[in-house]
């Protein structure tokens, strides 16, 4: 092999080898570069995620309404967020505690609203029980106190609508504000005033056997008067000196339902007034509550889990969710509801029943519905 041949042979064998080395070299340099780039990108993404998590934790913490959620759960939740819980922990905690979720997301929307529905009466009809049952519904907020605003007791109406609004509880946009004042039903002024506030407000009226209602009303008055040492004799009060039923005795007048309802029907259509059977509210409240729920456009909520019969109380009671917790506690109305009535002799009961027959008939015609009251 001469020098020329050797050189060309060498070229053939070494050039590809060098080329291979060069290619491998280039390849490994490129890989390292790519790796470095990928690593940088990962670091950047991690930094971004960490910063955004920190920011979100801060913003969650700032919107937590501590004035509304003041429970231990909420405190833990807030300190967890400030300790920079991971987003996952934040969301799983939110998911676990609906109260906090609601408060966090709705806090800015809470406001005072005029009532969208009012329980207008009748006194001793079961208005307290109905309102307490309804307050158990998550979409209902209501004042515990009777407002007596539209019936103008103690000149309240003169205080104005803004004063009335200020007395309302705060509610979320999807919650219905309610109030109950049994006096509204018999008030001369209440229908027009309520109509002026909102002509499409929904009205709920509980009617109970008028004779039972008279006795219940008498019992309440007697209990109150006994505290100032004045005894009441039912027979003397309910009958005139000639032995007729005393139409002017306030409990009798209140039980003459058609007189009062006529005033409301001058302004509100019957479809806007839901009448609850007060006797059935005592014996089978679930049925009545479901009907009210429907009338008020509320989601179905009442079931045997919420409403149960309490044997020792002798009345239906309710299970209410403990604030911020999944636990439920029983709640019954206090002893001022469901007082023992005095025994009334049969002849007097018959007389009262007889008296109310004609009035009840007028009412039944007015509402297109009958009750088994006699
Ligand atoms: N679940 C339950 N628990 C207790 N009491 C119940 C319940 N449901 C209806 N009732 C009947 O409600 C009657 C009192 O009616 P009111 O709340 O309208 O009275 S008031 O006008 O507000 O004073 C009260 O009347 P009396 O029994 O005559 O006292 C009760 O019979």
UniProtKB/TrEMBL annotation:
InterPro entries: NST/OST, P-loop_NTPase, Sulfotransferase_dom. Residues 117-321 form the Sulfotransferase domain. GO terms for molecular function: [heparan sulfate]-glucosamine 3-sulfotransferase activity. Disulfide bonds join 317-332. The chain crosses the membrane at residues 32-51. Keywords: Disulfide bond, Glycoprotein, Membrane, Transferase, Transmembrane, Transmembrane helix. The active site is at residue 124. 3'-phosphoadenylyl sulfate binds at residues 208, 216, 316, 337-341. Gene3D superfamilies: P-loop containing nucleotide triphosphate hydrolases. It holds the Pfam family Sulfotransfer_1. The keyword Transferase applies. This is Sulfotransferase domain-containing protein. It comes from Elysia crispata (lettuce slug).
